[in-house]
Amino acid sequence: MRGGGGESKATPSAAASTDCFSCSGRSRKMRGVSLALPLALLVAFCAAAAPQLVGAARGDNSLRIIQNDIIETINKHPNAGWTAGHNPYFANYTITQFKHILGVKPTPPALLAGVPTKSYSRSMKLPTEFDARSQWSGCSTIGTILDQGHCGSCWAFGAVECLQDRFCIHLNMNISLSVNDLLACCGFLCGSGCNGGYPISAWRYFRRKGVVTDECDPYFDQVGCKHPGCEPAYRTPKCEKKCKVQNEVWKEQKHFSVDAYRVHSNPHDIMAEVYTNGPVEVAFTVYEDFAHYKSGVYKHITGGVMGGHAVKLIGWGTSDAGEDYWLLANQWNRGWGDDGYFKIIRGKNECGIEEDVVAGMPSTKNMARNYDDAFGTAIL
């Protein structure tokens, strides 16, 4: 994700300023007749020519993120390729609250220094359709849709989800790892906790410090409050380094990655990485219309930039209409999108989806059990 934005599409606000200029230009060209027109009529002419802007473009962040005019625009668009609707997950969210949960910060170049980038031979044969859920059907975590609550912790969720999937794929371990450990204990090296972070730094944390199980340090507490995303304060939890379960020792619950790397932005390389090693974490730019996604192959149609978001990419395919897509799992529970999943057009770097792909391999470090080569390529 480049500077919080992916592709260089014009936002409604930019379009508005262009139309305003055109409108004023038309009024200048009409000087010969404008004196004969009532001022009110001339104002009405300009107002009719200007686009009707949605909430963020109007600068009103107190509006609800779910807006009927966006739904109508998408569903009437002849080339949208996807369906919009009212997602229950965001029923009470304002634009400000929606922006807050988009927690991917623009990655400082210094953080990428020394990070290797993986690519694959173009001769590698790949299937036309792929779904990690069916490829590794014994790994239940791949198909689990999580809930980040009101915290801007997507950068942490995407990383933890992919690492636990890879522990199952390569080491035959079905485990749930702790988002809370990463969120609370990585500190400024990963960003600002619930106020956003850097996906590549999450993977570096796995390599250096490891991450405990979710049982040891759960993201949700036991009293019905979404921890750490409780409203109205979006506080990052404190790093306690202490298991919530009796008789569990923090250091003994740590699970590590061997490495942290980027994947080359070519679709073939991304597909090859997922096909070979499992799901990857991707970051992309979110626009207003994305909050309304229900089904189909998403592409940005309308609305302003909201922020950066990280999710888990689990596969690919081609729609009945012939559009190549990526298949991804979001962490906005199943009350959003297609039961928590979404598809986005593949091969066009839509919203920057192909330019910030990160991952790592699971390690047997700190694990009592000895794994033989049958369980994968991960090493100490």
From TrEMBL:
<dbReference type="InterPro" id="IPR025660">
    <property type="entry name" value="Pept_his_AS"/>
</dbReference>
<keyword id="KW-0325">Glycoprotein</keyword>
<keyword id="KW-1015">Disulfide bond</keyword>
<dbReference type="GO" id="GO:0004197">
    <property type="term" value="F:cysteine-type endopeptidase activity"/>
</dbReference>
<keyword id="KW-0732">Signal</keyword>
<dbReference type="InterPro" id="IPR013128">
    <property type="entry name" value="Peptidase_C1A"/>
</dbReference>
<dbReference type="GO" id="GO:0051603">
    <property type="term" value="P:proteolysis involved in protein catabolic process"/>
</dbReference>
<protein>
    <recommendedName>
        <fullName>Peptidase C1A papain C-terminal domain-containing protein</fullName>
    </recommendedName>
</protein>
<keyword id="KW-0645">Protease</keyword>
<dbReference type="Pfam" id="PF00112">
    <property type="entry name" value="Peptidase_C1"/>
</dbReference>
<dbReference type="InterPro" id="IPR038765">
    <property type="entry name" value="Papain-like_cys_pep_sf"/>
</dbReference>
<dbReference type="InterPro" id="IPR012599">
    <property type="entry name" value="Propeptide_C1A"/>
</dbReference>
<keyword id="KW-0378">Hydrolase</keyword>
<comment type="similarity">
    <text>Belongs to the peptidase C1 family.</text>
</comment>
<keyword id="KW-0788">Thiol protease</keyword>
<dbReference type="InterPro" id="IPR000668">
    <property type="entry name" value="Peptidase_C1A_C"/>
</dbReference>
<dbReference type="InterPro" id="IPR000169">
    <property type="entry name" value="Pept_cys_AS"/>
</dbReference>
<dbReference type="GO" id="GO:0005615">
    <property type="term" value="C:extracellular space"/>
</dbReference>
<dbReference type="Pfam" id="PF08127">
    <property type="entry name" value="Propeptide_C1"/>
</dbReference>
<dbReference type="GO" id="GO:0005764">
    <property type="term" value="C:lysosome"/>
</dbReference>
<feature type="domain" description="Peptidase C1A papain C-terminal">
    <location>
        <begin position="126"/>
        <end position="361"/>
    </location>
</feature>
